[in-house]
Amino acid sequence: MIRILIADDDAMVRHAIRTMLEAHSDLHVVGEARDGRDAVALVPRLHPHVVLMDIRMPHLDGLAATRRITATPDGPRVVVLTTFGTSDCIDEALRSGADGFLVKDTPPFELAQSVRDVADGLGVLSPLLSHQVVEIFRRNTSGVGCIDQRPRSEDLADLSDRERALLSLLVQGQSNREIASLLHVSEGTVKSHVTRMLKRFGFDNRVQLAIFASAAGFSAGCGAATGR
């Protein structure tokens, strides 16, 4: 059972998200926070695995709350869930330690799967926001947040054709399930590939990996899976 804390200053939004998530038997909302300050206080009491965090809240905004929560040892993973999908917001969320960034109109099934992915140690990014990742790199050629440099050719030389195809789909914002369908492999195989590449390149989550791949030139139509 994945334990979830929802932080949003709008009670109707909190209720809607709770209803969507608790339609799935493996997801359980353990609490709701009205602002960032409440979220920080509730984490050690409720021990959630995942926090869904709004950005604009009174007393303590979501990004400041994210920084405090992710700074604690063995703390939960945080997904920023907001209506503000600008590249500045994504940049700052990643710098704050968030493991993902989703827009609030994310379809219910996709939201539930994103929570599962984050709980499994992956990062998530709304497909609608994938173009914003490119914008971050256009503004900052040295990378963003925890990515200190652009990929070198030797970093990419030993990638298999399947890994290259996977990175292209990751940059487009495809979910693990969608990637598995497009590459005709199991969802577990996709997760294994992503996990190996995270370790190889030294990243914490798939959002950072997608940014890295975008900087390396991976995008729609960049190769097909020939299955090495």
From TrEMBL:
Gene3D superfamilies: 3.40.50.2300. The modification 4-aspartylphosphate is found at D54. InterPro entries: CheY-like_superfamily (IPR011006), NreC/VraR/RcsB-like_REC (IPR058245), Sig_transdc_resp-reg_C-effctor (IPR016032), Sig_transdc_resp-reg_receiver (IPR001789), Tscrpt_reg_LuxR_C (IPR000792), WalR-like (IPR039420). Keywords: DNA-binding, Phosphoprotein, Transcription, Transcription regulation. One of its GO terms (biological process) is phosphorelay signal transduction system. Residues 152-217 form the HTH luxR-type domain. It comes from the Bacteria. One of its GO terms (molecular function) is DNA binding. SMART domains: HTH_LUXR (SM00421), REC (SM00448). Residues 3-119 form the Response regulatory domain. This is Response regulator transcription factor. It comes from Streptomyces sp. NBC_00060.
